[in-house]
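User: Sequence in, structure out. Go.
Assistant: Echoing your sequence, followed by the structure tokens.
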Amino acid sequence: MSGPTTLATVLILLPPSEGKTAPAAGDPVDLAGLSHPGLEEPRRRVADALATVSGQRNAMEALGVGASLAAEVERNRTVWGNPAAASATVYSGVLYDAAGMATWDDARLARARTHVRTVSALWGAVSPADRIPAYRLSMGISLGRLGGLATFWKRHLPAELDALADGRLVIDCRSAAYVAAYRPADAPWVSVGVQRELNGRRAVVSHMAKHTRGLLTAHLLGDDAVPETAADLADAAAGMIGDALVDVALVRKAKGPDELTLVIAG
């Protein structure tokens, strides 16, 4: 196996968290200040549509949420004026908590600015350093005249993310709905799955999958060297065996992404 190289060889793709921590204060989002300025126009269209739909009588149904999330849907109506903060602190679900992203120091956040992207139903793709407000919107939603958001972003993300992925290993920690919005074209691509081993048998898990992918993200960004190839990635992940993992398995694929499975104890 070839040895690990520098961080510049990696692009880590994350899903957003459903749960978000709304910033208590701060300036609103500045589209011109976000990564990927080429996405400014589609971002504006989605945010405008979200604000409009969130004010309609059928907003809860249109956004696919229950009554307990009424306050979050109401907050969508003022998305342009709401306080924004680094997405590393706004995204606060299981994966992000496991990565410890809200407490990353300046050095790790600077690395993540270039080498981590969260694929978002609202913003398309953001870095952990990009300042965004909290919002409620999932990629599986069909949003007014824009239609299905995965299809919408599939028209806009490749031009931005393929350029960023060029020459790098893409490490994909996203769920299927977000993969539908962007699939790397030519870059080497590895999807990360998680299984639990109990009594010699392995089974796919969901909640702990997010947690374990978060641990992998922190592991890669906290190391001085990270992988250039799928095999190197498996070697890097194997460094977590005995702590977070009991095994690592890599399956190479003729089409689509290679599959890295992180195995946790049952």
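User: And one key feature?
Assistant: The first strand starts at residue 10 and ends at 14.
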